[in-house]
Amino acid sequence: MYQAKLCFFAIACMAGLVGFSPVVTLAAETDTESVTLSEKDRDQKDNKSAYKKKMKEANQKWDTLSSKQKEEVYALIENKMKAEINIMDKLVDYGVMTKEDADAIKNHMTAKFKKIKDNGEFPLMRMKDREKRN
Q1: Which residue has the higher pLDDT, 26 or 118?
Q2: What span, in angstroms and rounded, lies between the C-alpha atoms of 117 and 71?
Q3: Which listed residue, of 20, 27, 54, 83, carries a Cα 20 to 30 Å from 11's Cα?
Q4: Which distant-in-sequence residues (6+ apart) come within 8 Å of 37 by Cβ?
Q5: Which is nearest to 134 in space by CA: 73, 61, 59?
Q6: Cα–Cα distance between 35 and 58 in angstroms, integer?
Q7: Alpha carbon 35 to its chain's center
Q8: What predicted TM-score, i.e. pTM, was given to this entire model?
């Protein structure tokens, strides 16, 4: 263990020394267009605002559904959640996950679903958007 730490420290020191030396890089000329960061940010903001608009519309449509229709959707989501829980149980059996980790995830999923269902909320809305709505 000591040798591994020493080796790691030596590699980190060498990387640090290399970082102090000047490195010159040359780029080849190309005929391709580059995208600036501001263009990328603008596109990302446009996508984010479009997503928020779609989610707002979907949430408004959700509010118009009858309680029976909402229960049908919640039942489908609950079935999906049960399948995911079965998968986690199988992963625990195979030793891929620990039982404690699986239980923590299952408890979180169950509590989140219960809160959404009890409040009659749109189930596909992210938590950040849901908190802003309230």
Answers
A1: 118
A2: 9
A3: 27
A4: none
A5: 59
A6: 33
A7: 26
A8: 0.60
Helix 67-93 vs helix 99-119: crossing angle, to nearest 10: 180
pLDDT of residue 20: 56
Long-range contacts formed by 124-129: CB under 8 A, 24+ apart: 124/55, 124/58, 125/55, 125/59, 126/55, 129/52, 129/55
pLDDT of residue 102: 95
Quick one: pLDDT band at residue 15, thresholds 50, 70, 90?
A: low
Q: Is 122 exposed, middle or buried (0-12, 13-18, 19+ CB in 10 A)?
A: buried
Q: What is the 3-state secondary structure (H, E, C) of the chain?
A: CHHHHHHHHHHHHHHHHHHHCCCCCCCCCCCCCCCCHHHHHHHHHHHHHHHHHHHHHHHHHHHHCCHHHHHHHHHHHHHHHHHHHHHHHHHHHCCCCCHHHHHHHHHHHHHHHHHHHHHCCCCCCCHHHHHHHC
Closest CA to 112 of 70, 68, 78: 78
